[in-house]
Every structure is written in C-alpha cells, then in structure tokens.
Write a structure and sequence with these properties.
This protein has about 450 residues and is of the alpha/beta class. Helices cover about 55% and strands about 10% of the residues. The mean pLDDT is about 95. The structure holds zinc ion (2 copies).
Length: about 450
C-alpha cells in the first residue's frame, strides 16, 4: 500500500499506509506534528489536548524571540499559562553548549511541567537534552526548515568545544508554522534542502547493505524518503522563492525523514556516507578551533562529491577483480589502527574503533562480500541507476543558491581528501564506499583525492 500524507482540521499531520511486513521492527510515531499557517494561536489547544500542564519554560534566543517566541509567550500567557522565559543572549548564533544547556536548566523550577523551544537545531537540542534529564515533556516550535532534527531522539551538543551526542527525546508536539518558516534566511532553507538531498544516497546505501549483508531494509521507510526528496527536487524553484507551497514541501521532507527514524528506530533511511563526510568536516574543524560548516549545507556538498563515485560504480566490471591481488594488498589490523588514529585523531579514532568493533574484516568475510557484489552486481547497478542524474541534483542546489563546493564550506584540500578516504570508516553502517574498498578499488576511485 502506498504511503499517503494529509492533515486533519487542526493541521495535524496524518500518515496512512504505514503497514509493512519487512523484517524491521516498526513503531508508529505518537508525536503530534502540525504544519500549516496561523498555528501559534492554536498552540494552547494543542498543549491542552496532550495534557502537558500549564507551567512551562520557553527557550529562545534574541532572533527567535522576535520571529516567533514573543507571540508564543503572549499567546500562552493570555490562555492562562505560567511562562518562564529563558532567552539565551549571545552575540551571533547560540551553540548547544554547556552554557546554553545550563541556562535552560537553571530556568526550570519545581513546578515546571513542560519545556517549549522556539528555534531550529541548536535551541531544540539544548531543550531536548534538558527534557530528557528532567523527565519533562517538550514542545518544539520550528523557526527554520534547515535540518531534519526536529523529530530526532539524539541531541548533538558541544562540551568544551568538542562535539558530543547525548541520547534524548523527541518533542511531544512539533509545530511548524509556514509563515514563520518562510522568514528564515535562504541560506537556512538551502541547508535544509542539502540535508534532504543526501537521503538519495542514504536510501541507495541501505538497499546495497541489504544486497551485500542481508541487512533488513524497510520499503515503507524507503518510499517515504524517496517521495519526499523527489517532490523537493521537482519544486526547487518554489522552495527558492520561499512560497508557502515550497516551504511546506521542504518541511514535510525534513519531518518525514524524521518519521522514518521513529518507525524503524534508526537513521538508516536518512544518513549514510554523505553524512559521514559532513560529520567529519564538522568534527575536525571544531577540533582545530575553526568554525564548523552548517550541517545541511555540508551534507548537500558531500552528496555532490559522492554522487559521481556511485555513478562510476554502476559502470564497473567486477569480473575483472583479482581476488589474490586484493588479498595481498589488504592492510593489517595494526595498519588500520594507525590509519584510524591518523584520520580521526586520538580521541575520536579510538572511540569509533571501540563502537564499531567488527569493522576490521577477516579475509573470509571480505571475500564473501566481494563474491556477493559480483553475483548481485545487476541489483547494485539498478539501485544506482535509479538515482536522478547528478545534473538534476546540482541544478536544484544551484537554484537554491546553496553551497556547491568544499571551499565554500571552508574545507581545505587536505581535509577534503582525508574525509573522502575515511568516510567509509566512520561507522559499521554499510555503504557503497565499503564495497569499493572491500573490492580493492578505493585508490582507483579516489585518485582525485590523494592523501596530502
Ligand atoms: Zn542530516
Ligand atoms: Zn518495514
């Protein structure tokens, strides 16, 4: 059955056709997600319906206060809510760091019943981690369609300038008012588009993981993501003009990506090697005291970088592989440890290796995977051939005025080359980059990315 989405009279998102008999364990999302216009006046009703109480801490910053939080505050107060305002004051952007998280924590009182964040990624994550620590439910009012994290259960944060991830909770209520989202700068809109375009690669890698390693693949989640991203590419100019229709398509794509995470309990449908590249850039820039690129924007650029590698593989002839030669060129476990510590540096390198133990393959396992890739090459090719053309993706990003190159993201050639080489090593999650490496073809495919 096809997945269809619609809205009830309250603008609450309704998804039908989610029944699926794939081997993945499915959980139906229980959050209330509202998308529409003129939603702020309805907020008290949404909160009452969910029974969250009347005492809240409202988290915002200087910008989002002007954009929406002032309205939210007044609306809630007029409806009899007790609102403690936690306006995080910073010059420039608020980072989700210990200071911001601490400000929220110190605003919470014994009588506080729920938290409400008005903002995009950073403010939502700052609130999210406080919600999980205090056990309070939270409401997210989105202000920019810039990333797919509204529905996330993980909070990416900064501690002493180092990126950390903390298990957290999804908001009980997500409110995306299109008139508010439309006021977001085009660069944030373009960033949201970049994050969504990466889903093409994520989905392809998921199916390839199914082909090579019999990893369970959920066709319903695959369909949700594909429909959303196709619609987005078809409407790039509406999005660039920030029309109501365009912004609705974008925020739906971002929210629905998040819904797949809730359904299958992991991010397989929404993040793969393109996210690994983007995470690597962010991690290394932070580690070296530089400004990290914006998440969605760098995912978009990374998607453009890995796309031609996928397309080239579709033309590969795997019968040319010399298994003995591949075996003789294998790196040892010691060499791999050295490589990981060079690529990811001491702390991250060690923790990635600890968390992805099985990543150094035995030759038997590598050989099995190579033979599977050879036997099932037609299926892998079909997955890649199913992707839209590179030109179409590039054109969509250009229409949005999105960043197109690593330079625009502030990434120098040495970091770029290293990122392309070590993206496959970021986690166990299977990707075509692993296939290429396991087939002994990495140097050939990445010869434009020499280690400097
Ligand atoms: Zn993302
Ligand atoms: Zn399924």
């Amino acid at each position: 059955m096809a997945v269809t989405i619609g809205y009830d009279q309250d603008c609450k998102l309704q998804i039908s056709g989610l029944t699926c008999d794939c081997p993945c364990e499915h959980h139906m999302p229980t959050q209330d997600i509202y998308v529409g216009t003129g939603l702020i006046p309805k907020l008290p009703g949404y909160i009452q319906k969910r029974g969250l109480g009347t005492h809240c801490v409202l988290v915002c910053d200087k910008n989002t206060y002007e954009v929406a939080a002032r309205d939210v505050e007044q609306t809630l107060k007029s409806a009899g809510f007790d609102v403690i305002l936690c306006k995080i004051m910073r010059e420039g952007d608020v980072d989700p760091d210990e200071t911001a998280c601490g400000e929220v924590l110190l605003s919470i009182q014994p009588e506080t019943e729920f938290l409400i964040s008005v903002g995009s990624g950073s403010l939502t994550d700052t609130t999210r981690v406080n919600a999980v620590r205090t056990g309070l439910p939270f409401v997210s009012v989105g202000t920019a369609p810039s990333m797919d994290g509204y529905t996330s259960v993980v909070a990416p944060l900064l501690l002493h300038g180092v990126k950390i991830h903390r298990a957290a909770v999804c908001p009980d209520i997500i409110v995306c008012d299109l008139d508010i989202l439309r006021t977001a700068p085009l660069s944030m809109v373009a960033s949201g588009v970049g994050d969504v375009l990466g889903k093409y690669i994520a989905k392809a890698d998921w199916i390839i993981g199914n082909i090579i390693n019999d990893e369970p693949y959920c066709p319903v989640c695959g369909e949700i993501v594909t429909d959303a991203v196709n619609k987005l590419v078809d409407n790039a100019d509406e999005i660039a003009k920030k029309t109501e229709k365009g912004i609705r398509i974008l925020i739906e794509a971002l929210l629905l990506s998040g819904v797949t995470i809730m359904i299958v309990g992991h991010t397989r449908a929404v993040a793969s090697v393109e996210h690994n590249v983007a995470h690597y850039w962010e991690m290394m820039q932070l580690l070296h005291g530089k400004k990290p690129p914006q998440h969605g924007s760098s995912v978009g650029v990374a998607t453009l970088l890995v796309w031609p590698i996928f397309q080239r593989f579709a033309k590969e002839d795997l019968s040319r592989l010399d298994l003995q030669d591949i075996q003789s060129r294998r790196i040892t476990r010691e060499q791999r440890v050295k490589w990981m510590l060079k690529a990811y540096e001491e702390e991250a390198g060690n923790s990635i290796m600890r968390e992805n133990e099985g990543d150094f393959l035995t030759w038997e396992e590598q050989e099995r995977r190579i033979r599977r890739a050879q036997e099932r090459f037609a299926d892998i090719k079909a997955v890649i051939d199913d992707l839209p053309s590179y030109d179409r993706i590039y054109a969509a990003m250009k229409t949005l005025g999105a960043h197109l190159t690593p330079e625009e993201e502030g990434i120098d050639p040495a970091l770029l080359n290293l990122s392309m080489r070590c993206a496959k090593d970021y986690r166990t999650r299977y990707t075509l980059f692993k296939t290429i490496d396991e087939c002994g073809l990495m140097d050939e495919y990445l010869k434009d990315y020499p280690l400097l």
